[in-house]
């Protein structure tokens, strides 16, 4: 194993135990028996090391999904559930590390990490869309953005519960529940109207952005209830045929006071 891989493994261990901010470059270097100066031959900062770790996690998960053996007699819905289970188990295999990611992610002012998180979300959503199409066919295409949001939203909420509240849940049962829930929705599509289906050339979608903000508010805000109420009001107002600009401006100004979602609020303003 080369030193870059050793440094990543050591950092995962230390970040899981101590947190990102509490772990020093010196400690990571010492763990693999090199000097602090030698660390910078491999990574220019602790943040760039974290970027490499996160990229590795996603690449390994997506590659694993691509290689996952699906039994020929498995129904498309059950094949979808099996893929979801693999994805969830990959995250929970390093539960302590992802607790650190949820609680101690150093995104403030770090363009590299912020850009990476957006890139990872886009890549993950593309894979979920492919999984959905494979499972439920092309007829769901007009609702693909909405169904992807539902899948990712359910996943996210259960992961928050499992990781942060240390709840023990059956991943197989959860995956089958998600797959059955999506199947139930697809059976009603003829009576439904798509909500969020438009994305720009960069894959930007309003619903994904609101999902990110909701998660961060739940995780970090000291004023969770009022922030979530404001976010919900903003979402409702933006869906109006004639949204009231003064109200949108007031709500976005209020939400931008929460530092953890400041960038998302700015992104929302720029894409309106």
Our Rg estimate from Cα atoms comes to: 20 Å
Tell me roughly what share of residues is in helical segments.
over 70%
The assigned CATH architecture of the largest domain is: Orthogonal Bundle
| C-alpha end-to-end distance | 48 Å
Please identify the top-level CATH class of the largest domain.
Mainly Alpha
| Beta-strand content estimate | under 5%
Q: Helix and strand string, N-terminal first? A: HHHHHHHHHHHHH
Extract low-pLDDT stretches: none
> What is the number of independent domains?
3
Structural class: mainly alpha
Written account of the structure:
The structure is a single chain. This protein is 71% helix and 0% strand. The longest helix has 26 residues, at 111-136. It is mainly alpha-helical. It has 13 helices and no strands. The termini are far apart. It has helices spanning 3-18, 25-31, 36-42, 46-67, 76-92, 95-104, 111-136, 144-164, 171-186, 206-220, 224-238, 245-255, 262-270. The protein has three domains: 1-44, Arc Repressor Mutant, subunit A (Orthogonal Bundle), CATH 1.10.10.60; 55-197, Tetracycline Repressor, domain 2 (Orthogonal Bundle), CATH 1.10.357; 199-272, no CATH class.
């Amino acid at each position: 194993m080369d030193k870059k891989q050793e440094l990543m493994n050591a950092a995962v261990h230390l970040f899981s135990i101590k947190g990102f901010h509490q772990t020093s470059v010196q400690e990571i270097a010492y763990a693999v028996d090199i000097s602090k100066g030698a660390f910078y031959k491999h990574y220019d900062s602790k943040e760039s090391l974290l970027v490499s770790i996160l990229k590795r996690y996603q690449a390994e998960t997506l590659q694993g999904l691509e290689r996952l053996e699906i039994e020929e007699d498995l129904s498309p819905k059950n094949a979808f559930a099996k893929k979801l289970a693999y994805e969830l188990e990959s995250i929970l295999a390093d539960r302590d590390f992802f607790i650190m990611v949820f609680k101690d992610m150093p995104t403030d002012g770090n363009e590299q990490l912020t850009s990476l998180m957006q890139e990872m979300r886009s890549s993950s959503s593309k894979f979920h869309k492919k999984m959905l199409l494979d499972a439920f066919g092309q007829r769901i295409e007009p609702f693909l953005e909405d169904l992807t949001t539902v899948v990712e939203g359910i996943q996210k909420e259960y992961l928050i519960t499992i990781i942060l509240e240390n709840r023990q849940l059956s991943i197989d049962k959860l995956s089958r529940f998600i797959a059955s829930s999506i199947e139930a929705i697809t059976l009603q599509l003829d009576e439904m109207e798509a909500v969020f289906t438009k994305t720009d050339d960069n894959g930007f979608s309003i619903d994904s952005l609101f999902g990110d903000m909701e998660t961060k508010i739940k995780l970090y805000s000291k004023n969770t209830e009022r922030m979530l109420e404001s976010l919900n009001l903003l979402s409702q107002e933006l869906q109006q045929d004639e949204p009231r600009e003064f109200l949108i401006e007031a709500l976005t100004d209020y939400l931008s006071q929460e530092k953890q979602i400041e960038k998302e609020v700015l992104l929302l303003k720029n894409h309106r």
